[in-house]
Amino acid sequence: MHGPINQTAPQTVSWLHVPNHWPVQADLISWCQSMGPGLATLLIILGVVYLLFGFYMFKALVVLNATLMGACIGIALGERTGAAVPGGILGGFIAAALALPFMKWAVAIMGGLFGAALGGAIWRTFNLDPQFVWAGAMLGLISCGLLCFIVFRGSVMTYMSLQGSVMLVIGILGLIYKYDNLAPKLTTWMQIKPFLLPMAIFVPAVLGIMYQQTWGAAPAPKK
Prior knowledge:
The protein is globular, with a radius of gyration of 18 Å. By secondary structure, it is mainly alpha-helical. The chain is built from nine helices and no strands.
């Protein structure tokens, strides 16, 4: 982990390697420990934006999500041919261009991905058989993906608040782990109380939904 970095591949590309197991809380802690303060601060700022203004800015934020996702896919594919940067630019551009005219489908895909992550996380949180974690992920993917076609407004608020809460909590953890006197205590608490991290994500997400619903009750964006 502390060995020399491969000079043939950018450091950011290593984030795109798909893990050989379903990510657990320890993987998230490890990522937060290696996170730079600049990235942590950026996540906190974006998390607040998603939490408070996710519904009114959902088109721009969905396009941003699609761009980042397309860029990651493009980098991962381009890395095999030595064209990671052009692949990332092309992938981000194509994803953004597709997200604009197919906004509802883009929200459904985004919600499905969040649902898959949420379903897998709940599966592992309750210590169910890890070999069948895909079942929980598939259940969350289908449920959350279809929900946006039934309750679009509520789905957008929920997905944006959930993403904002995750980004905010991860950013805060990334900054806390920069303090050597707080990092061991935080890791111990999270290991002893595994429900601490889900609760830390759930509470801001609910508050974000309530704030967006109350603040945006009068004017609603036109379709």
